[in-house]
Amino acid sequence: MASLNSVVAITDTAPDNAITDIPVNTDNNNEYNAEYLPPSIDTMIPTLRFMIHRKLRRKAHGQYRKHSTRRYVFSAVVIALFMTLIGIGAQKLELATSWPELGLIVILLLVMIYIVVKVSIIIRWCFYWLVLATLVLFAVNRGQLFDRNGSTNEPDDKSNLRAKVVVIVLAILEGATLSLVVLLRVTYPRIVLRATWLNSRWWWRIKETPLPLSKSVNYRTIMFSYVSWDPDEYRLSRSSVSYVGEFDDKGRPHGLGEWTDHTFTGEALQGIWEHGVPVGPFKSQEYGTGNAFCNIRIGFCKNSIDKNDSTVFKAARDPNGPSYGAATVECSVSGKFFHHLPYVRIIGDGILRSELEQTAKDDLESPSIPLSYPLSFLSTFAESLQSRPSIRGSFHGNSSPRNAPLSKSIVVRYTDRGIFIPGYIMSRRRTNVNEVSIRRICPPHLGLEGEHLGHGDMSNSGAGNSKAAAVPTLLLPTHQGGSSSASVASDESSSGVDRLGVQRAMSSESTGSDQGRSVEKARKRRLTQAGLVVDGWRQVLDIDGRSSSAVVASRAGYEALVFVHGYNCALTYGIGRLGQLLSLGEFPAYIKPFVFSWPSSTTMGYFTAKKVGCSDNVASDLRQFIVDLKEAGFRRVHILAHSMGARIVLSALRKGYFDDVLAEREVVDPEPSIISNLGSKAHLQGRMSVKYRDRPRQQSGSASSFTGHEDLSTIQLATFTLLNPDADLDIFLEEDYWTLTKFCPHITLYADAHDGALFWSEVLGRKKSLGRHPRTLVYSPTGEVLDVDVIDTTSLDVNIHSIRHNFFNLNRMLVDDLYDVVVLGRRATEREARLSSRWTFADDGTENGEVYTFLCAPSYVVNK
Question: Looking at the record, which segments are called Disordered (predicted)?
């Protein structure tokens, strides 16, 4: 589909934080100073201008539309008819005496058809004028294109004059339409965002609302109205805007906040703001259309010399080594999808790891690690992605604690290491890893503060009979008097890991007017939550990334998700694809996403990318990245390898770069002769005899059982997922699988027999590709069934490009399936509601393995 990239590319040059009306003040002190400005309409105007610019940018880039064959056919007919009517159609074709002249006319016709179709998708009025001009010319020629003998009628002088007038008027209308579109979609957005001479109060007729319709008991509320164009009623109308949340010293939105614009394309945006600009993570939804968006943060490790948004043919590794950084990515998640999304913005510019390592060594007071730089951007508020009512009810200001969101559902899984609860860690040393006690708090028969509610009139009950029951509310302790953004205090008893405090409801027996007012105030400022709690386990929560405990918080059970992209993939492109997957799947906040960006070359540099990607330098950088994840406190890592990225990871594994880094699984009943020859391909049969299992956790009471992991010197490869992998099939069966089994208990492979990109890979490499032969992957060359979940995606046909190589982040079936794999750790046999098993057979006719397909109907099947 065509987009307005060529028309409105200038709008992308404006950064998201390009608000120049008020200078940025980095002073986070709460003390009053001469530069302090209280929140008001004037301080909110720059934010209003930025939010209006977001609306205009969505309108400028446009939405994806379904391809229509009828549109192309109709456009071709209109163009051919128009060219005939103005005298360069059938008449010129008849006078063409040579093939070059005829070919030139045909090429001109095809080019005009293509241009008109592409422009009409973006600017439909240009096509409407053309249709109108064709009808007028048809009337001028009196509806006659050909005479009775089949030759073209020769128009008279009047007809020629009228045709020229029509063409001139058409050209004027087309030019005026294009000029108007450029003015509204290019020039005006730049004026709204950058022009300091624009009188915002007068232009939008901004009026203050002295008494907001709804106020928050926790945050300050600013509300005003302005005049905007209503596309639904085709007129100017006045709409209200409100902001509820935190502010900086200049009175601009800063920290956790919610913006609500009641215009048709206005946004209800809740998340993290920075000096008047939403920087994410946040969730947003258009007020009138229902189009929803999600902004998340993703870290990256880059070791190529390519630019962040492009690649070069001569791919090469950065001689200075890898660099670390972070980015935000905004994606469409519901309703209409927009052309300019996913939109990636680098917020933590890549810094060389060597510089970060030297800085960490020089800082003797608080030694850090290189990965603390991107983690400082990733460890942000988990509350920012909660439901909208949380801002107005359950969150508190700087002087009071913040409620920790409670889980409404908890998944408990059995593993060889004991019971595993995604998103939770054990908080008691004596917790039994094989027993779990889950309780529900705040039953329905309890009031807001925990008192029992009777069926009669509560006002008639005595004070002695209305004693409040002790119902706990989970709270997240915060620093007092800090910056406008919350900073979580560390608990010394748990090595700096944040604990959840328990605050009980105040007794209703309090007497005196002062105590009564304090009880009532506490009632209003506290929202008792209903949910589930696990005895002896603590829920993993995000904290403020600017606090010193950002790295320490990563030891509280966070898991890393590393995406290794394929060839011809820039850094921002890889971040955008991973961000779309996480946004649609709504992955939990305790899973921290990263992208490993290697020198992937361009479309014509396939062999260059393969050579550089499988080099020892790239493998060494990938190993160093995994080591840094381990040093940062991550104990579990999930790897998603797409296309040639699978070849990169498998090559590093085969060469032994992850030995002593990834936790090795325990060998079941090993034989000395077999174990001693595990590194030799000649002992393939012996390799198949080796079975692995996860090492069990240590007994309760040990130091390692408190963190839930037995070995702090290695990191566990929890899942390894291959997405349309561009790797050699034979090498995987003979070598890579056995290496993977030694480290990873959960291997999943998504294969497509009709993958066009892998087809050309097989042609160029003259070897079978791992991602094009799903039925071959269930058994080894000697006939043994492999412990790999093979998912055949050949039958899927929704949100899939014709090449069928890159759709894992848009197809809903794959998104949900990847969620189950990464978050819940479910094997294919446990996903029966989505997958159907299909047995494969060996040459002797015996059943030897399963291949899974998705339970879904083709897109063209509908009810009659």
Answer: 479-522
Tens digit of pLDDT for each residue in 147-157?
444 444 555 56
How far apart CA 358 and CA 107 sit, in angstroms, is 62
Instruction: Determine whether 202 is exposed, middle or buried from the number of CB atoms within 10 Å of its CB (0-12, 13-18, 19+).
Output: exposed
- Do residues 272 and 255 lie in contact, with contact meaning Cβ atoms separated by under 8 Å? yes
* DSSP string across 712-748: TTSBEEEEEEEES--SBHHHIIIIIHHHHHHH-S-EE
Of the chain, the end-to-end C-alpha distance in Å amounts to 30
CA 655 to chain centre: 33
Instruction: Count how many residues are written for the chain.
Output: 864
Reported as a single tens digit per residue, the pLDDT across 845-859 is 555 568 899 999 888
Beta bridge partners of 851: 838
Expressed in percent and rounded to 5, the helix, strand and coil fractions of the chain are 35, 20, 45
CA distances (Å), origin 452, targets 464, 471, 670: 13, 10, 61
Taking residues 631-638, report their average pLDDT: 90
Which helix (H) or strand (E) segment holds residue 244: the answer is strand 235-247
Residue 239: strand, helix, or coil:
strand
Tell me the per-residue pLDDT of 693-725, one tens digit each, with 9 for 90 and over: 776 654 433 333 333 444 567 899 999 999 999
What is the CA angle 828-829-833, rounded to 5? 85
| Helix or strand holding residue 45 (H, E) | helix 41-61
Rg (CA), the chain: 32
User: Which pLDDT value is given to residue 82?
Assistant: 74
Distance CA 793, CA 722 (A): 13
Q: Are 104 and 98 in contact (CB under 8 A)?
A: no
Please name which of 91, 108, 102 lies closest in space to residue 155, comparing C-alpha atoms. 91
Q: Are 378 and 391 in contact (CB under 8 A)?
A: no
- By CB neighbour count within 10 A (0-12 exposed, 13-18 middle, 19+ buried), where does 62 fall? buried
Residue listed under structure tokens 């109709």: 74
Strand pairing report for 835-841 and 716-723: unpaired
Lowest-confidence segment of 37-41, 188-192, 459-463 by average pLDDT? 459-463
Helix (H) or strand (E) holding 82: helix 69-85
Q: What is the C-alpha separation between 140 and 84, in angstroms, rounded? A: 13
Q: Provide the 3-class DSSP secondary structure of residue 329.
A: strand
Contacts of 486 (CB under 8 A, 6+ apart): 255, 256, 381, 398, 402, 478, 479, 543, 544
Q: Are 407 and 423 in contact (CB under 8 A)?
A: yes
The closest alpha carbon to 652, from 685, 619, 675, belongs to: 619
Distance from C-alpha of 351 to C-alpha of 358, rounded to nearest angstrom: 12
The rounded distance, in Å, linking the Cα atoms of 540 and 497 is 10
Numbers of helices and strands, H then E, in the chain: 24, 28
Cβ contact 159:91 at 8 Å: no
Residue 553 · residue 544 · CB < 8 Å: no
CA distance 82 to 171: 13
Strands 418-420 and 413-415: antiparallel
- pLDDT at site 553: 56
Alpha helix (H) residue ranges in 632-779: 644-654, 672-675, 684-689, 703-707, 729-731, 737-743, 756-765
Side chain identity at residue 718, one-letter code: A
Split at pLDDT 50, 70, 90, the class of 511 is very low
Least Cα distance to 442 among 526, 531, 539, 533 occurs for 531
Q: What is the widest separation between alpha-carbon atoms in the chain?
A: 109
Give the integer Cα–Cα distance in Å for 783 and 264.
Answer: 62
* 8-state DSSP, 365: S
CA dist 8 to 17, 186, 589, Å? Answer: 19, 6, 35
Tokens of 273: 């703001």
Contact (Cβ atoms closer than 8 angstroms) between residue 563 and residue 638: no
Alpha-carbon gap, residue 607 to 55, rounded angstroms:
43
